[in-house]
């Protein structure tokens, strides 16, 4: 029979006394120590050691965030999911501190301390592993938790909205009626799905607009999805119009699906810190599926509870639809995108001209207008033609010669012609050239509103704005990069026109 080994218990506290311990107590303690030694020597070889758990629960996130070892004598500390390991270097039974010089012959001792967690802590840890990437929170960017929370909420309410729309389509197609023709209903359903695929194909023509106006298109996708679900929900009231209404609604759903899927990668990339885009995508898909399943279950309960009343069903649908839109808005509100689109570029330049400094990522993204038509320019400078025609900027030879002489060292031409600011891009124009042209345009616009002359080309203001952009652009771009903005790849969405010219034209004779 194997002996039972119990963990060593701490010695009980002895009351303070001025007298020395008796000889009986000394003899008993010595005999007890001898028995413990004999027991340790007779320990069998195949006894599984029992892990000693700490009496106090340990917060793993706090341990992960610590950069110093737990013990001052530990040379290193390793953190794993269920325990911590402390490494000690000792000589002659004495620990050597982490800063001491180690010698050949020093011994390495490893002490493992298991993390004690309640059932609630283990459940929360399991949820974190399902919803958060490996290495969280160091492996993701700011705003990830808020985005995940509202994404779960958006999918929850979106699942409930989908139940009402599907129920309306099934009722309109005749499911549950004995007079319904199964073949006709199946054909109508197939045609509806085909129109949805056509909607995806047509809306994919937006192209890089999904990268430039990520937040706006993401919110528009949620709005279009709710409108299409509302259209599907009213089909039972007009069953003879089922096919056209269902086709229009499914085309809108296809466009919404393309917008949501195309903007997802840009959002996930903003959270990436350790080349873990795949891990972030997998965890967010898990959150979305979980929210959709819970929302579908709640939608089924609501649809059954409101099946006997058209008014209650409409109220329930409007409630979950508004909750879905609000969750989608809050989901994208906390995203901090580092790329510069037209609105964010104008915002940075406007703040730089007024305050003399570039705002950081958090401030710039919080001031961005999300409820905005993404295909329009920002309100700061609404009359910029980026990628204008060369003939519009230089209608005659004198104007062309003036522009080529002024911008002989640039890959763009900026001018004010016909009450609009026009920017012509050369074939080899880069992102920095577009951003520099925007800096000149915004500075010109501010000066024009103060001292500009209508019905004039305002060439003095154009030259003044070019001098300002030429002298300040490097410091502006450098400060923007220090504040986290990406100036190497701006998404200003210029019109796809390019031009080439010879900068060494002879000067005009006078």
UniProtKB/TrEMBL annotation:
<keyword id="KW-1133">Transmembrane helix</keyword>
<dbReference type="Pfam" id="PF24160">
    <property type="entry name" value="UVB_sens_C"/>
</dbReference>
<comment type="similarity">
    <text>Belongs to the RUS1 family.</text>
</comment>
<keyword id="KW-0472">Membrane</keyword>
<dbReference type="InterPro" id="IPR006968">
    <property type="entry name" value="RUS_fam"/>
</dbReference>
<feature type="domain" description="Protein root UVB sensitive/RUS">
    <location>
        <begin position="122"/>
        <end position="355"/>
    </location>
</feature>
<protein>
    <submittedName>
        <fullName>Protein root UVB sensitive 6</fullName>
    </submittedName>
</protein>
<feature type="domain" description="Root UVB sensitive protein C-terminal">
    <location>
        <begin position="375"/>
        <end position="501"/>
    </location>
</feature>
<dbReference type="InterPro" id="IPR054549">
    <property type="entry name" value="UVB_sens_RUS_dom"/>
</dbReference>
<dbReference type="GO" id="GO:0016020">
    <property type="term" value="C:membrane"/>
</dbReference>
<dbReference type="Pfam" id="PF04884">
    <property type="entry name" value="UVB_sens_prot"/>
</dbReference>
<feature type="region of interest" description="Disordered">
    <location>
        <begin position="1"/>
        <end position="51"/>
    </location>
</feature>
<dbReference type="InterPro" id="IPR055412">
    <property type="entry name" value="UVB_sens_C"/>
</dbReference>
<feature type="compositionally biased region" description="Low complexity">
    <location>
        <begin position="14"/>
        <end position="33"/>
    </location>
</feature>
<keyword id="KW-0812">Transmembrane</keyword>
